[in-house]
UniProtKB/TrEMBL annotation, chain B:
Signal peptide: 1-20
Listed name of the protein: SPAG6 protein
SMART domains found in the cross-reference section: ARM (SM00185)
PANTHER family: SPERM-ASSOCIATED ANTIGEN 6 (PTHR23314:SF0), SPERM-ASSOCIATED ANTIGEN 6 ARMADILLO REPEAT-CONTAINING (PTHR23314)
Alphabetical keyword list: Signal
Originating species: Polyodon spathula (North American paddlefish)
UniProt keyword Amino-acid biosynthesis present: no
Gene3D superfamilies the UniProt entry points to: Leucine-rich Repeat Variant (1.25.10.10)
One matching Pfam family: Arm
Keyword Signal: yes
Amino acid sequence: MATVVKLQRKINGIKEECFNRNRVAEENRRKEHKAALLIQSWFRGCRVRAYLRHLQRKATTIQKIWRGYLGRMYFRRMVKTAYFIMKMNFYNEMAVRIQKRWRAYYVRKYVHNYYALKQYLEGLTMTNEIVRRELEEFAVIKSREREKTALESGERKKDYLARKMHYLVSTEQIAGVFNSPYKLFPDEMEFRLRGAKPLSPKASRSRKDGTEGTVETSTLGTPFTLPQIEHLPPIPKKKPQGPFRDPAEVLLQRYKPLEPTLRVATSITSVEEAREELKRKEWGSQVNDELFHHFSNANKNRRHELMLHTSSKFGHVDYGTKHFREENPEKLKGKKDFKRVFTTVQVFDKFGKTYSSAGKAV
Amino acid sequence: EQTLSLFGLGVMSLLRPLLLDVVPTIQQTAALALGRLANYNDNLAEAVVKGDILPQLVYSLAEQNRFYKKAAAFVLRAVAKHSPELAQAVVDCGALDALVISLEEFDPGVKEAAAWALGYIARHNGELSQAVVDAGAIPLLVLCIQEPEVALKRIAASALSDISKHSPELAQTVVDAGAIAHLSQMILNPDAKLKRQVFSALSQISKHSVDLAEMVVEAEIFPAVLACLKDPDEYVKKNVATLIREITKHTPELSQLIVNAGGVAAVIDYIGDSRGNVRLPGIMMLGYVAAHSENLAMAVIVSKGVPQLAICLSEEPEDHIKAATAWALGQIGRHTPEHARAVAVANVLPRLLSLYMESESSEDLQVKAKKALKSILQKCTYLPALEPLLHEAPPNILKHVVGQFSKVGKK
């Protein structure tokens, strides 16, 4: 009872105490909160820093290894090029020595060889003489050819002129232009006129050769000719009097080109020819020459083809299948056998057998 | 000339509507008239360009019949031949593509007219040639060379020659189209004008570099080419000599090849037979051959070149030929005392001295004569030839003569 009364008296005090303590706590809350925050943040910072340090160490290791690798590669490359340069220098020096000797020999034997030069010059004079003579002959031949062609074309022209002017030939009554009575002999043209055959109008038309001088006839083979045009049918003249058809129709019919039907145009043996053609094509394009025999499995007397491995005439080599070592008995003649087995070690004989009988299985 | 251009403009304005006429014969005749006018005078050609006729011609070049094409190509050629600017104007109208298309026609007359126009365009300078090449003309021209018509071959060969003369790349393009083989097949053709063009084309190709010259030589033209040195047409001979000169000037090996084939003898005979300007390539060829090495110079001497050159030196009236002869003699005589003696024996030194001293000779001739004289004198030990020089020489030459005397004579 007394305690209850004591407690009841303390209630107000307790309430005040409680209130006071809450107030103090509230007042300190912010401070304490900030302090706790500070402590926590510092600790987190420590953790992160430790992690960063760890990462940095690892990164340094990686970079160190990588740079070492790069440096070694670079070094190897430098060594390679230096070696290569050394090699090339060496080769060049040797080549220079060879060239030095060769050039000395060559110059002394050929270039400064007085007698060779003299011979060469003598040979050259002879060649020059030959060339000069040949050129002279060539020039003479060419000039003669030219004169000949000029002469021939002159003759042809004069003959053509004579044929055109054949009417100027002198007759019994009238002396022609070229046969002057005051001269002893008639002009040469007169003789030509006497021997000339008069030109026919068709001949004069076909004489027009417009391709002279523009086409090369002297070089290879045939001269260039225009493609032959087929002659067109003649132009119909006036219709003759009487019960005749129109000449145009008649000529059309007469000169109608042949147009056979397909049936007529195909040959009798066209089927056989087509078969031959097909066979030829097949023969040319086929890959395998053996024809396929249907049901040929019935006579199966095919020979069995051996494998190349087994059928070579040298037979199997024993090495690799039967033994793996080269054995040369002549070399081994005086030698004793190789001791393959050690002397036994007694301790190992007892292995597994000392305590239990499980080792007896060994 | 002003009246001529005024007249030209008047005529152009009359002819222009005729070009668009319905009747094809009128069109062709109008084009022909334009071509003849432009051909005659460059002012008229300018008037053709200014009258804006070229685009119309180029457009119809693609479409019309072959007579019109021939006439249109004739107009283009007539305009392009006068000057590079006119040729550039022709190119600017897009004429090149139309001309190259007409090179593919069947009619040889059209091909000839187109190839002629292209040749005249390419003649002026390198850019125009490059434009012609870029239009794809070269393979077609090489095809034209293989045609049977002689006139077409002539024109195609001259067009190729004009294209390849400007630069090594253009010459290489021509060679890559396989022109050399066809050109070398036509060497022994009887037509003289064709041979002129063929040799001119080959020499323009080979003048640029050693490789091109070697390719020309590999076509096995020697010794057939030497036969053409006896051709009656003098321009053929001149072009052959030019070709040989262009080949020999590159390397001693090529010169050696030609000497071994007897080319030196042929060229010396050629120099002896011809007169005037056509001798020049032959003389230069001898100079080039002798310049390479002393053995080749000795070969020239042995083939009796020096007397011939001495004759040239005294006969020829023109200064540039005399200068070339003096240079060639200097090249022959400068190697060793043997060579100098061979030159001096032909009584060349007094002549060279007189050429050097004459005030009428051109600068070039004097310089070359002096150089030749000096180089020969420095090796000459043949005293009878040196004595006449003692009397007349000026001091700068005299010191060399006296020096030679001191080297040789003890008297």
